[in-house]
Design goal:
CATH class: Mainly Alpha
Number of helices: 13
CATH topology: A middle domain of Talin 1
Helix content: over 70%
Structural class: mainly alpha
Shape: globular
CATH superfamily: NCX, central ion-binding region
Strand order of the largest sheet: 1-4
Amino acid sequence: MTLQIVIFAIGLLLVIKGGDLFVSSSVRIAEFLKMPHVVIGSTLVSLATTSPELVVSIMSGIKGESGLAVGNAVGSCVCNIALILGLMATLKHIRLHPKTLAVPLAAMCVAGVLLLLMTLNLKITRVQGLSLIGLGVGYFIYDFRRCMKDDSPSDVKEATEIEDVIVSGHRWLNTPWGTAAQFLCGAVVVVCGSGMLVEAAVNIATSLGVPTIVIGLSIVAVGTSLPELVTAISSSRQNVSDLAVGNVLGANVANLTLIVGSAASIQEMSMSRVTQLFNFPALLLLMALVAFFILRCRGITRSQGVWLLGFYVLYVAGLVILTVLKKA
């Protein structure tokens, strides 16, 4: 048991570090390709920061651990909204422009409702998984083209600030060869770390008699969401709130479509009725709250950030209570 905890911790650290390397190198590759800064900040970063969740969910699907794959994706979405946006707002009042975030906000809400409807029979088939992938790819292509046409000074400034927060390192790493090496290194580290993480998580869950989906919804979800957390908090200090929140919303779209879809396309996924009735309503309620904050309040105040953090504490407590009741 102790050995599995150590392996889990090492795997989590590898996933976090590999995700950091992957994000930084992905942004610099985009720069070498002369992509506009607004595209780097609002589209590419959202995809890059979800790379840990993607690899973990795919590895879970390959190993037949559908609960861990679903839990990782849904748990990361809850973590992104309640924990990450909550921390951002608690540190500093987030002031937003609703028009800027309308597209990713709508896409996130649609993806959440669609996934709920797909899982009414407690399953996600391979066909549904491929459909989710198609929807996710379609959305990011649309968002990419939309951002390519959007070169307003404020958006470019914010994307540049986000890029400055993420991109760092030695001079050699800023060269094309150094960036390519960092990209490959990050990918290898994420894959290796994910393999260790999934294997250890399954063993720990089995030893404790805890469903793997609970591990995925809590510890694994928080760990794989750390790239978004670091980016969001750093961006909040740089006053780049719109694209920082856009990154979180885009990451959620990727989680609910590309990541769940990738895992389901490998192997049909299933879940318990209790899990569905607890986690999906919690996710949809959070989506409704953040939509209200953005569209009506034009931002998230510090007090609202505290409420989001409180919601996350209650959510995790609910997971623990459900697990205890199920074992009793």
